[in-house]
Amino acid sequence: MNVEQIIKTEKEIPLQSRTIIHLLLVNNKVSEAMTACLKPFEVSPQQFNVLRILRGQNGKPANLSTLNDRMVTKMSNTTRLVDKLILKQLVDRKVCPSNRRKVEITITSKGLEELKKMDNAVITIEKEILKNVSTTELEELNRLLNKF
Q: Whole-number mean pLDDT of the chain?
């Protein structure tokens, strides 16, 4: 991906700026692919992220703070994400019996079933996105990204 060609400039962009633009372009490409991949399931990438977090709780409930802390994309509207997943019957929300101010959120069995289907679609799109990058290159890329 040649940054100058993509943004249609003949002027050479300084290395630091080119790097940031490159990261933004790659982020957009990945975001668009993930959104398209999840569209048939009628969930957003953020909703998918919530479902994966809840599955990782292994049956233990999570609260909104836990979800927000673990989200890949930090958002202030986690409540709205959960509300949409409740409407789709993918998660449940209950008031904690011992602390009525605490809300507990769990993934439903339907949520787990749908998430398995989504996982397969995501694995396929991840392979497609990364098809031109070797395992060694991915390891190096991750090592470099860790520096951020």
A: 92
What tokens appear for 131 in the block?
A: 């098809």
- Burial classification of residue 73, based on how many CB atoms lie within 10 Å of its CB (0-12 exposed, 13-18 middle, 19 or more buried): exposed
Measured CA angle at 62 (ends 55, 52), to 5 deg: 25
Burial (CB count within 10 angstroms: exposed 0-12, middle 13-18, buried 19+), residue 17: exposed
pLDDT digits (tens, 9 = 90+) for 53-86: 999 999 899 998 889 999 988 777 888 999 999 9
Q: Which of 93, 94, 123, 91 is nearest to 110 (CA)?
A: 91
Tell me if 23 sits within 8 A of 31, measured CB to CB.
no
SS3 at position 75: coil
The pLDDT of residue 148: 87
Return d(Cα 90, Cα 111) in angstroms, integer. Answer: 4
User: How far is 124 from 122, CA to CA, in rounded Å?
Assistant: 5
Cβ atoms 43, 118 nearer than 8 A: yes
pTM: 0.87
